[in-house]
Structures are given as C-alpha cells and as structure tokens.
Amino acid sequence: MTQNRLCILGCGNLGTPILTGLLNSPNPTQFTHYTACISSAASESRLNTLFAAHIATGKLSIARSTPSIADAIQHSSVILLAVDPSQVTSLLLAVDPSQVTSLLLSSPSIASAFHLPPPNDSTEKGKLVISVIAGLSTTSLSSLLSPTPSPSQSTNASIPTPEHELHILRALPTIHAQISHSHTAIQLPPSPSDPPFPPTHLETATSLFSAIGTTTLVHEHHMAATTAVSGSTPAFWAVIVDAMVDAAVAVGLPRGMAQEQVYRSMAGSAAMFLAGWKTGEVRDMGTSPEGCTIGGIMVLEEMGVRGAVGRAVRESVTIAREMGREQDRGQGGGRHVNDTRRV
C-alpha cells in the first residue's frame, strides 16, 4: 500500500543510521517498505552490502537513477529528506538547478514527483516531507520544493494541483538512531497554517522516530539551539571520554579495560540523571575530604573545563543559528560560518 511506503532521500552520515534503526527496530513501524535514494555508485555499493538481508526480503530497495528516484518519491506518502546540507545549499544558489547534475533534488522530474499524488491514493492529504537537514528552515525548504512549471507545462495534467500540497516537518534525530537510542526533536508545525497541517502527519512523524528512540516536540525558535545541544554533544562526549581512556592507559590500565570502565561510568551517570538525580548530588556522593575525586575535580576547575565546555556548546548554537540565517538569505555557499568566528 502507498501509505506504508517510506522514501529516504540521501543515506549518508544521518540517513543511514536512521534507516538502520528503522529496519532493525524492536518496535513495529507503520511502514512495510523502504526506498533509499542515493546519487553515487559508491553509496549504492555500500548500502547493498550493509542491507543485503533486507534487500533480499524485499523490505528495502535502492534507487539511484532519476526515473527510479522520482518513482519512489511519487509512490511514497512520507519522504525523509536527509541529503547533505551542502548539497541543498548549492541547489539554493544555482541559477539553473537543472545544471546541478550531482544533486538528488536537481532534476525537474524529481522535484515534480513531490507534488504528484501516489497512484490510487484518494486521501488528498498531501505528502509529508520530513527534513533532518541541519540549518535548513521549513520556509527555505518549502521554497526549494515549490513547483515551477514552464509555460509549456501549464496545460499538462501531471502538473500538481493545490490538493497535492506538501506538508513539511523538520526533525533533528541524533546519531544514536543507529542503536535505536536517538532523542529526536520534532518541530511543531505552524498554527494556523495554509494549507492546514493534518494532525495525522505529526502523529506519523512521532511514530516514525519513536521506532528509533525517544521524541520531543520543539518550537521553531528552539530548533537552532537543539541542533547543537542534542546533535553536537555526542561528539563532545567522544572527545571527553577519549581523554579519560588515554589517561587511564597512561597510568597502567589496559586500553580495553579502561574503555569499559569509562563507558560504563558514563552510562551509569546518565541513567542516574535521567532517573532524577541532580548533578550536584552525584558529584557530592563521589567526593570525600582529601579524596582522589575532589582532587581531580579541583584540577578540572583550575583548568577552566566547565567554562570551556560551556563555550563549546554556545559556539555550536551560534553556528547553527548562523547556518539557518545563511540558508534563509540564500547565501549558504557564500562563506563558511566557522571562518568568521571571533576568538
């Protein structure tokens, strides 16, 4: 059935973990078939190897040619847009998008497919497009996907009509989708909106991301901060944990033992915080007068670790906000926002 098809456009660093999480999720999803749309032979080979078992059962198909991608988009009621932000930036800046041949969205037939109703679909709700592209607002994406038929096409029956409007949601899953532990922020649709946003679409998005972890609904003005606080911090944790493991090895622990001890300490601490323990309570429980823990904490404070971590988070949020402003101005490829940061 058309309603049970999900098309994932772009399977890179984020699209692949999401697809992996959905295919391997212990929680049932509403989708019986998935199509992964990619643009390179290397990606096709990687996905064919990674998902061989699911392809063999017919649960997943790979689309790379323009006709097959357009067909997958038209036959799906839900499209997950996970292309690289730089690809979207290049497309937004292109004078003639048809000349940007390397991009998944550059073909007119692919762009039109978003607005064509699936065969035998009488719901007329319009397709749901869920974007997980960092820094790209729903306003920019709506403009990008707006149909612009040429005069010669104006009388063509295949040109979309208003009843086939797109409904766009923005979501920010984390890389933990790979193991069904993503905490996905879903942007609340505008209210009121034109056309009206079907409540069932928000339910669909929530159900989809619940299959790969937990979800939370976020207002638009919090999305830039969420991009960094939720999306960037896994890499921050990796740097901190790596430093702890290296230090443990330096004082004599075998690396494997050090890794397990540090990882489990981190996971246990997170579990306590999620259970309601305050950070100060956990810190105080582990410290005693003249003990090793308070000695280590004093070094962290003397070296300004608290301020450095806070600055890293704030810098990531600043860059996320600047990315959004650049995209909305159509200047995303004009400069690299990190190059303009002041030390």
TrEMBL record:
GO terms assigned for molecular function: pyrroline-5-carboxylate reductase activity
Pfam families with a match to the protein in the record: F420_oxidored, P5CR_dimer
Domain called Pyrroline-5-carboxylate reductase catalytic N-terminal: residue spans: 6-105
UniProt keyword Oxidoreductase present: yes
Residue ranges of every copy of the Pyrroline-5-carboxylate reductase dimerisation domain listed in the record: 220-323
Keyword terms, alphabetized: NADP, Oxidoreductase
Family matches, as Gene3D superfamilies: NAD(P)-binding Rossmann-like Domain, ProC C-terminal domain-like
Entry superkingdom: Eukaryota
Disordered, as annotated region: 323-343
Keyword flag NADP: yes
Annotated PANTHER family: HYPOTHETICAL PYRROLINE-5-CARBOXYLATE REDUCTASE (EUROFUNG) (PTHR11645:SF27), PYRROLINE-5-CARBOXYLATE REDUCTASE (PTHR11645)
Family: Belongs to the pyrroline-5-carboxylate reductase family.
Protein name, UniProt field: Pyrroline-5-carboxylate reductase dimerisation domain-containing protein
Organism encoding this protein: Cochliobolus sativus (strain ND90Pr / ATCC 201652)
